[in-house]
Amino acid sequence: MKYVIIILLSFFFINTVNASNNWQRGIFRVNTNLSAGDESIESVVEKARVNGMKFVVFSDQFIVIAEYGLPPFRNIFRLKKERKSIVSYGITEYLEEIKRVQKKYPDMVLVPGADIAPHYYWEGNYFKGNLTTHKWSEQLTVFGNRDPEFYKKLPVVLNDRTGFTIFSLLKLFPLLLAAAGIMSFISGKKAAYYSDSQGHSYYRYKKLRALLSVFLILTGFAWTFNNRPFTIQGSPFDIYHNAGTAPFQKAIDYIRKKGSPETGVIWSAPEATMKDKIDGVFLYTAPYLGDIENTHGYNGLAGIYADAAHAHEPGKTWDRILLEYCVGTREIKPVIVGEADYHGRGSIELIQTVIHSNKTDYSSITNAIIQGNSYATVNANGKMICLDSAGIVHKNKYAWLGEELTASENREIKLEIKGHIKLEDKKLNTFGKIIVVQNGKLLSENPVDLRNFSFSQDILLTDKNLQKQYVRFYIFADNVWLLANPIFIKTRR
Fold first, then answer.
1. What phi-psi label fits residue 297: left (phi over 0), alpha (psi between -120 and 50 degrees) or beta?
2. In the predicted structure, residue 14 carries a pLDDT above the cut 70
3. How many CB atoms lie within 10 A of CB 218?
4. Burial of 306 (0-12, 13-18, 19+ CB in 10 A)
5. From-to residues of CATH 3.20.20.140 in the chain
6. Which of the two residues, 191 and 230, has the higher pLDDT score?
7. What is each CA distance from 176 to 14, 74, 171, 213, 217, in whole angstroms?
8. How far apart, in whole angstroms, are the C-alpha atoms of residue 64 and residue 82?
9. Distance (Å, rounded) from C-alpha 193 to C-alpha 181?
């Protein structure tokens, strides 16, 4: 019996060691020169490959159109400006280009995606100098789907397409007004106003009736044209009113319903503030953590990106939605990614998503991102923190990042982390801090020398109100840091 236990433990140890080598580095959220970037798809892939990455998640801007119309016929009297995007380039062509480059680099996994802004809305007046568009850059990154039809029907503002539905008949209703004007004009345009002694009659137009008839005709046709009956709108929400989170929830619901198993959707840069002014028009996007907490069905949010981030701190947005998942009120596990937002400028290695997977095929890569078998890290100032292994150990069971472990009892549960720090200069400081969070509360802060470090933390399952509990951690070292996805623990009852 003793030898059987030794063999089983040895087998477990060997598998754990082997698994610790299955980290795949990649870059998430890339814009190319097909939209807002400077480099081609192929150039980005070549650069990522040279730098040791195994996957690239592209997310060019899906559609970039600023449109403002004057009432009452906003679709007729309007100004429209459009920038390069997937839609302007061609959705099918975009996916085909990624497929072409994928064939050229079979050792890489190229994941197509798009940055979508489901809604923006206008406030103010141009002539008063305060015309402002809100939520211009409130974006979601949808990735993993390779079907052009999926993207063509995304419920995103101004993602319109030609078509005819039962609702198109309602849009044709103003033609009745035009028809009434035509009938009125034909039947009553003249009236006799004088007859001479020889019986000759003289006629003149009924000016008021004629003018009213012309008005009805023009209004009916203009109204119909403004309704665009042969256009299926990308979004049912008009851009002149604040629709709250409804447009974003509609987009998420569509992605959940129509997406493939490899399709994910992540909130992008949730705490970034965008302020700009173009041609006298203000563009403004406020941080939208509130919208993240008030929507459901997405896969997570950007944890590290090129802006200030606080949602990962104990008890804040990420913990609040994680706790909702743990009590069962949120169906989908909210994970984080490292969002590079790479446009061809700066280092492609700056912000990376590192997944844990023993395979490097398309489904394995996308599934690892969606399931949170990953961590986000920053490579800057000559330093990058790397994990060798990280997970929860309970007796002879082990759960990696994003996984769930069932504990037979509330003891012998440990968080174990092993890793190292990469240095361009060996003289650089290697000291940092490991912060451990359990169920939204700070569990410990631990100073550590990150050179080939090992860290262990005892875990007690203290919250019996949760269906499952979780432990997560992040590591700081000067201006670089690492943010890991949580490991979940469920106790037998």
1. left
2. no
3. 13
4. middle
5. 18-160+238-380
6. 230
7. 78, 21, 11, 13, 9
8. 6
9. 23
Measured CA to CA, the distance from residue 177 to residue 224 in angstroms comes to 10
Tokens, residue 479: 């201006």
Residue whose entry in the numeric block shows the structure tokens 């990735």: 143
Backbone angles phi, psi at 77, to 5 degrees: -95, 85
Omega within 30 of 0 (cis) for the link into 261: no
Res. 9 pLDDT band, cuts 50 70 90: very low
- For the chain, helix (H) and strand (E) counts, in that order, are 12, 31
**Which pLDDT belongs to residue 203?**
58
Lookup: tokens for 359? 């395979």
CATH 3.20.20.140 is held by the domain 18-160+238-380: yes
Going from the C-alpha of 332 to that of each of 278, 328, 399, 467, the distances in angstroms are 39, 9, 19, 14
CA distances in angstroms from 299 to 262, 284, 435, listed in the order given: 12, 26, 24
Structural contact between residues 490 and 413, judged by C-beta atoms closer than 8 angstroms = no
- The tokens for 265 are 């959707």
Residue 356 Rama label (left phi>0; alpha psi -120 to 50; beta): beta
Task: Report H helices in 124-174.
Answer: 148-152, 166-171
Copy the structure tokens of residue 113: 């995606």
Neighbours of 114 (CB within 10 A): 25
Question: How far is the C-alpha of 225 from the C-alpha of 247, rounded, in Å?
Answer: 25
Q: Hey, what are 254's tokens?
A: 């569509």
Model confidence over 317-368: pLDDT tens digits?
Answer: 999 999 999 999 999 999 999 999 999 989 999 999 999 999 999 999 999 9
Domain 383-493: which CATH number of 3.20.20.70, 2.60.40.10, 3.40.920.10, 1.10.10.60:
2.60.40.10
Residue 166 pLDDT class (50, 70, 90 cuts) = confident
Name 168's bridge partners.
none
Long-range contacts of 326-332 (CB under 8 A, 24+ apart): 326/439, 326/466, 326/467, 326/468, 326/469, 326/470, 326/488, 327/465, 327/466, 327/467, 328/467, 330/296, 331/296, 331/297, 332/296, 332/297, 332/298, 332/299
- One-letter amino acid at 162 equals T
Q: What is 362-389 written as a DSSP string?
A: HHHHHHHHHHT-EEEEEEETTEEEEEEE
Please, where in the chain does CATH 2.60.40.10 lie?
383-493
What length is written for the chain? 493
